[in-house]
Structure formats: C-alpha cells, structure tokens
Amino acid sequence: MPTPTTPPVSALTTDLYELNMVQAYLDKGETGEAVFEFFVRRLPARRGFLLAAGLEDALDYIETLRFTSEEIDWLKSTGRFRDNFLAYLKDFRFTGDVHAIPEGSVCFPNEPLIRITAPLPQAQLVESRLINILHFQTLIASKAARMVLAAPGKILSDFGLRTAHGAEAGLYSARASYIAGFSGAANVVAGQRYGIPVMGTMAHSYIQVHDDELTAFETFARARPNDVIFLIDTYDTEAGARKVVELSARLKADGIVIRGVRIDSGDLIASARKVRGILNAGGLKDVIILVSGGINEDVLQGMMTERAPIDGFGIGVNLDASIDAPSLDCAYKLQEYKGTPKRKLSEGKQTWPGRKQVWRSYGADGRMSGDALSVEGDPQAGEPLIEQVMRGGERIKPAPTLAQIRERAARDLARLPEPLRQLQPGNDYPVKVADKLVALAKEADARTRR
C-alpha cells in the first residue's frame, strides 16, 4: 500500500490574512509558542456523529511545506510584504508538535481533531490548508459512514468524480469514503495514489456506438474479459437482461465469466426484481446486480427494508458534494499562547481554552457510552483519544496504512450506540465538559476582563 501523499499544491494555497498576520507577528517579535486546535462546533442537521479523516494528508502537508523562489518573488512583487517576512518564508520549515485523534475515529462536537503546538507564525501559517484538508475529508467520510451503516454488507462505490467540486475534491472523496467502508471508487488516480480498488463498468455511449446491444455487450466483454459488468438499461432493461443471458454461454465457452449488470434509471427496486428473475431463470444466479442514480442513505435504507435484490450501489454527487450537509461548522482557534490559556468569547462561537484531551467510555455491551472533554492534565474515566503524531516537525512513527485506518473506522462504527447506527434523528451523544476545563474558562474570562 503506497504511503498517502498530499497532491502537489502551491504553498500559497492559503488565505491572505494568514500572511498578513505573520508579517505583523514578525514585526512585533511575536514568535512564542502557540497552541491551536481544529474542531467542529456543532453537527449538521440529521448528523449524530462524525468520522475523522484527512489527518495523514494534513501531516504530509505540514511536513513538506516549503515556499519556492517563484512564490516568494511573486509575493514581493505585490508590494504587500517586507523583507523580513520574505526571508522568513525562504527558510520556512515547520518545527512544532502535532497531536490528533487518529483517522477513522468517530468524533463529536468540540473534540479537537488536531492540535498544533509551534512558534506562533508557523501555527498561524498552516491554518487555511489544514482546515481545507481536514474539513472536507471528515465531511465526506461522515456522509459515507451513514451510507455504509444504511446498507451493511453491500458493495458501495464512489462514482462522484464528475460532479465533485474539482479534481482534488474527487480524489479526497474517494479516500474518505474508502476509510468509511466503501468498497472502492471509479476515480483512477485514487487507485494510483492511495491503492484504493478502482471500479467501473461502461457508459450508455458505448452501447449506442454499436448497431445492436448484444454486439456491444460481446465486444466489451472480449476487450476487457475480467470483472465484466454490463450496463443494461440504455433501451429496455428487461431486454438487456435477456441479452446477457443469451450471451453468457458463448462467453463462458471462451473462459469469460459475467460478473454483473448495472441499472442506472427508472424504478430501481422494481427493475432489479425483474432482472433478478430473468438472470436466475437463465442460470445466472451468481451474476450480481448493481444500481446507480440518486442514491443516498435514505434510498439505501428503503431498499434494505424492501429487501431489493441489489448487491451494490454506485454513488455520485450525494456523496462527493454531501448534498444534505455540504459543510461543517468548524474552526481552528488559538487555545494558548506563551503558556497562557486563551479563549474566544464571540457570541455563539465561544471556545474552550487550553490543551485538551478526550476520554471515551464504553458500556457493558462494548458500545460507546459517553465522552469527557477536559484539559490534557486532568485525567477522566475512559480511553484517551488524542495522541502525539509529530514532534519537532517530524512524524514520530510510521504512517498507518489506509487498510489500518479503514479497520479503525469499522471498529468505531460498530461501537456506536444503536440509535446512531440506525441513523435515527434526535439522539444526542453525551460529551461532558469536565469541571477543570470549566474553571479554566472562567480564569481566562477573568483575565480577559482585566
């Protein structure tokens, strides 16, 4: 399995205000140790949990962040920045520490997904891109996890590249959904970069190019004889299924086995039932049925309830754009500077100060029963979730494989309380804020008022 690698992007993939602040910090000599944490303030409607994703790509970004001479020259040409700032960027290396909740972990509001401890200009400079990576992958992994829970045991594939908001979004969607339990993705570069199983069939255009559907099926199967899956709804779905039966013996004689058929339109449940009957009657009981088009977790739950004879689903824009909840209310906030806890008091956006840890407890049934949030040095009952992953700008242990991250996600999803596993709305998971953290917040408020 290849090591995850962040797609190459410019170091200028950041917001101008990050650069503005670093210039001002350098001018004033504000380079003391700062602590920032990234967290989600509140869950979107209908979400009962999140699945943390994107950490390995975020660490890769931090570890390799460099400014090229071309980028620095361009910044100089804008006339916005002074020589001390430009010289700082020329020699920039991240030298701080990173603590995080491991990828594939279930998490909840106000729990820090990542903590950055570094000289203030460094910790500030990485903000925008860190949020960009962690927000999006966590958003998609959380959406994908709902689909995995809605259709246990089914083949789920990310078909959303063409409707994703850009190439990187399509790539990250494939990675995040695979972590959550998807079987693979149609996105070829996801296979090359991350080792994700690449899955795909054919388009209606391939059928239309040929004078008849049967010929289209046969030429496709002989051109690509492994894992043959036919798209059968270009003209008439039932007629397409009968042609698959007609062709199967001829292909089998040449060692070509038909793996499945795909339906992309109409009443998917009704069509699948009719097609299953045709395939079974033709001796093709092992040929699987895949469907695509408008699939989300509600559709999946409905199909499971109806016991539709469908083996797998291709899921596009509902996954890659997380249509019902296209963003998370998240933040990357200063929690401590030069050893002094810091707290934001903006209405509706108050933060908990200091370096924090999350402890998770489990019931007798092995399911999660509640989390506790407190300052790092205030142990609570349960299992601590946040661990150190980088020291002095370097990883302290080998990166987990994508398979290991995926295993963690499967374990955590299995340990969710049953109402959350069933995607039932209105079931809040308890996250207790410990007394010591509350007291620290009061101290920070008093200091602010003074």
UniProtKB/TrEMBL annotation:
Processing after translation: Transiently phosphorylated on a His residue during the reaction cycle. Phosphorylation strongly increases the affinity for substrates and increases the rate of nicotinate D-ribonucleotide production. Dephosphorylation regenerates the low-affinity form of the enzyme, leading to product release.
Assigned keywords, A-Z: Glycosyltransferase, Ligase, Phosphoprotein, Pyridine nucleotide biosynthesis, Transferase
Residues annotated as domain Nicotinate/nicotinamide phosphoribosyltransferase: 156-337
Enzyme nomenclature, EC number: 6.3.4.21
Pathway listed: Cofactor biosynthesis; NAD(+) biosynthesis; nicotinate D-ribonucleotide from nicotinate: step 1/1
GO function terms (MF aspect): glycosyltransferase activity; nicotinate phosphoribosyltransferase activity
Function field: Catalyzes the first step in the biosynthesis of NAD from nicotinic acid, the ATP-dependent synthesis of beta-nicotinate D-ribonucleotide from nicotinate and 5-phospho-D-ribose 1-phosphate.
UniProt family annotation: Belongs to the NAPRTase family.
Record PANTHER family: NICOTINATE PHOSPHORIBOSYLTRANSFERASE
Entry protein name: Nicotinate phosphoribosyltransferase
Organism lineage string: Bacteria, Pseudomonadati, Pseudomonadota, Alphaproteobacteria, Hyphomicrobiales
